[in-house]
Known about the structure:
Strand content: 25-35%
CATH class of the largest domain: Alpha Beta
Amino acid sequence: MFPRLVIDLAKVKNNSKNVVEKCHSLGVEVAGVTKVMCGMPEIAEAMIETNIDMIADARMQNIKKLKGNGIKKDFLLLRIPMISELDELIENVDITLISELKTIKILGEKALAKNKKQKIIFMIDLGDLREGVWYKNAVENIEKIIEIQGIELIGIGTNLGCFGGVLPTLEKMNMLVDIKTEVKEKLNFELKYISAGSTAALPLVENKDLPKEINHYRLGESILCGTDVTNNRKVPGAYQDAVYLEAEIVEIKEKPSMPEGEIGLDAFGRKPHFEDKGWRKKCILAVGEQDIDPEGLIPINKDIEVLHASSDHTIIDITECKSDYNIGDIIRFKLSYSALLKATTSQYVEKIIINQ
């Protein structure tokens, strides 16, 4: 059935080994992030085979699925937790990224009631403006956290590049190191982890510019896409087609490149833009925005141009193609992170696993 995602576990393992070995060489532990694959157990197993240190996901449902499928590894919850899921968290999660004192206190109370101690990494906002206490207030908050029973504060962390696009520079890394040092000097408390890295922070590892105190990365995009979208690059040594999309042609027609008639907004409220190239040979694929992000489709055949998509159809231009395409033929695409996220989440996209 098409459309379908094809997941090449051999290439996933290559990409995982590629980043794990680089990080381990600098004493950096790696949490393999499975969220873009909706917690697919086969992906977690592939990562574990490359000596990944823990498995990370943003959704409790995915962590429960992974555990239910026999994945034996420490689990890190990436999304700061909802109060309503704390009971499930205690039963299923080993380490939690967290930023709210109120939530930490309730988590501690619930953990104590179950005779447990919950490990947390306290998130600090260094300027990207997503989760975390503002960096100037970090130490005073940590002073309160270490007094909360039922909680084991094992580290501090940050998120960069995902919301504000702020790059994880050496300056930003040293801000976390300074906070760790201040906690040690003022509070006499030792933090085990500084979890400072996503794929966007890999250049610091590759260039060996990472401060030695930074010892934990959370990596998903570099393993599954082989890309680093924040820095607009391909990850050295990684495949960009470890996971790819196949979609079927349902129409081939010669049509003008410009619509005829008064132009309004498209089905998603956007103003479409067109370039007049005369008559062009176009295909319609049976996949649309309910399944993919069309801007994140990268045709394997570089002569193909992705034009636009609606809910259920994607239109491509094949005028420059040397290959002769027919109805029923399959077009293959590499995927950006956003396109992979949508395709994995869509129930209408079949998932096929190979191990070449």
